[in-house]
Structures are given as structure tokens and as C-alpha cells.
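Section 3.1: Structural characterization of target chains.
Under the original work plan, the team committed to producing a structural model for every single-chain target entering the pipeline before any wet-lab resources were allocated. The record below documents one such target. The sequence was received from the expression subgroup and is listed exactly as submitted; it comprises 260 residues.
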Amino acid sequence: MEIGTPLAVVTGAGGGIGAAIATSLADRGYGVAVLDIDGDRAGDVASRLVGGQALEVDISDESAVDDALDRLGRPPSVVVANAGIVRFGKLLELSVSDWRRVIEVNLTGTFVVCRAGARRMVDAGAGGSIVAITSMNGVVPGPGSGAYTASKAGLNQLVGQMAIEWGAAGIRVNGVAPGLIDGGMSGPIYADPDFRRARESRVPVGRLGTPEDIAQVVSFLCSDDAEYITGQTLLVDGGVTHNMISQLPRPSAVERGETL
């Protein structure tokens, strides 16, 4: 990784959306530090990137995160907090240990990574851009999602708080909330073609999203073209979260455009 190359740190970048984000930023001239709890996966992604560097780290471990960023040798210009987990289960049966682990990784871990990056940006005095990957489930809950919905809703608010606290230092903070994405944690469920078609039929644009759809938006938010955008969480979902009413029965007169 050349000293003059701007540095981007991407967590959970060993596959899926994170790998697509790392690739997109590398294509835009960043040296990318690929962070993942699975060091082998991180190494595989980093090996395919010009200026890629792999680091194995659990983002819920504050000292491990600080050590990883210190090993990079220079402050990041961009931090993308993508790492996250889900533990499915109905709330009445969900174990407290599963609840705590999801909150620990998705909310606390994201805070730890973003703050570590922001501290180094402040010390360098050059500002930067931070993007947190949230979820449409942080806006609309999903049954059986355990603590995932609460963790992502909390993250949406954290994005705003980080933005107002760190803006004076030239640090912009935004969120990207993916919808139904064919990849990453959701990839295996779309192997069933009937389930896939059923899901696609609910999306106004007529298809599932891809990791690259998310990566393109993240890259935009990290760019100078988005220099006046901060504190926002952008839904990238093909319109699905606004499509609830169309799934409900409606009077035939309404469908015909008549007055009731």
C-alpha cells in the first residue's frame, strides 16, 4: 500500500457486500484494508485488490480494533463499518446470549470501529468519510429477526449522532440501508427459485439487489460528490419498504379510480 494512496478501511469485507465495497473503493484509487473475523477470507479478497491489505479482527474487541488500525501505519480517509451478524428467533424464545451478541457486534462493534477511525482522522486533521451499513430492518421490523432489527434501528440513530459530533472535524458520517440483497448473509435463502421469485415480485423495480448496488452507493457517499451529505441513512432497496400498501387487499372501486 503506497504512502500517498488514500486509505479505506472496510470491516466484514471477507465476502458479500463487504468484498464488493472493498473492490469498488480499490477501483477508485484507495488502498483498502480488508478487515474480517475470518483472516483467510480477508486475505483472499485483499490479494485481488491493488494495494489491498488483510487484517483478522473481531470488531467487538476494542483493543483488537485499535491494534489493527495502528498496524496500518497511517490514518484512514474512509471507514466503512459493514460487519454484522444475525441470530434468528422469535422474541419469546430468543436467548439473552444471542440478543447480546447481535447488539455487541452490530451496534457496539460498529461504534468501536467508527470511533477508532474518527479519532485517527481527528489527529491527522484531514477529515474523512465514515459509512455504516445498516438495514431496511432498521426502518421496518421483520418477524423472527431477534435483536437484528433493534441493532440496526439503533445504528441509524448512531449515524446521526456521530455526524453532528464529528462534523466540525471535517468528518462526514452516513448510513446505507440495504433491502433484499442476493448475497452475503441473505445469499443462501435465494437458492430456492420459488422463494426468490416470490421475493422479487414484492420489489417495485422487479429484482433483488446485488452487493455491487450497495457498493456503488457507498463509494458515492465517500466521494467529493457527496461532500454536503452527512447524518443520512439512505435506503437502497428497490422501493420495497414503501410497497406495503400494494400487498394489502384494496376495494375494487379504488383500483378503478372511483370515489368511494
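The mean pLDDT is 93.
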